[in-house]
Amino acid sequence: MEEDIAEIPHYKYYFATFKELEDKVDQIELLSDVIGVVTIVQDLEKSTLNSRITSCRNVTIKNVENKELQVTLWGHKTDLFDDNVLKTLEGPVVTIFTSVLVKKSLGKPRLSSTTSTLFFVNPNIPKVEDLKTRFQEDVKTIKFLPSAITTQSSLNEEKKENRKTLVKLLEIRPKSTKDMRFTVKAVIVDICEKDGWYYMACPNCMPPVSQADVSWWCQKDSFINKSPLAWYKLNTIISNQTGKMRMMIYGRVAEYLIKEPCIQLVTNHVNQDKRKFPQAIIDVIGKYKIFQIAFETKAIDNVAICKKVFDDETSEATNNRHRLSPPINPKTPDPKVSVNQR
Question: 257: which residues sit within 8 A by CB, 6+ positions away?
């Protein structure tokens, strides 16, 4: 009787083929599970994620069609993926990566771990045995490669790259800056209320979408059958000792600056008026940062697009002095008091 009872699986996987991953690029609501034979493991290295230095490890896997795919593990996930254990295993090593985000690099899909990502080495499921059999002769050992050198100094160099003052940036002609980026140290002094602080974006290409009956319309993708994403859009004024300039901050860059995902802020914000800013957005005003910017080459005026935001550790004291305070209303002079007494 007991022999007829099937074992209940501990996990349920929804494996995406490498071709299916093409349709999931940058879609945070569509995380994927993948399976493959590990062919290359790179040593731990330091890299930048959202303008912060963190540890990462690149792992290359092959699918049953003999196509390679790179998976990047970030932060504490790199500690859990122990290459010393892999070195003790014989034959093809099959690994499952769950809840990974699909990115694109050099025209090819590339996977990135999330906080929900788990991985399983040689789990006891039929698909693993099929892959082991397929690569029994082709992949007998894993290549362990040294890390590429990415250090704090490279981040510091990026912070200072092509540094300009605001007055110099205002003199630049946008049409002459194709593929160019600049950095500037400045403080956000204002955020325009008229345009609001977010919009509903197409999950495929990120431009705004409009409601069309029960579906959504995107100018590029026509009707879309996926839910749009709440996407940051901050129309800011930045300033320093040399001048002021308008700068747009979108999406993930704004998320790093505000420290909260846009959908979370939209959900928690009591006031549904997009022109009324949540406190988390108000809090970014008055803080010095280093902004990496580019210009829209088709724009008539010098509207900068923020590409990255870097914390500037040397400006903490300056930030505290520049936080905007409510205006102080002067007392109305008493007409009965003489000028000399006042």
Answer: 249, 284, 289, 309
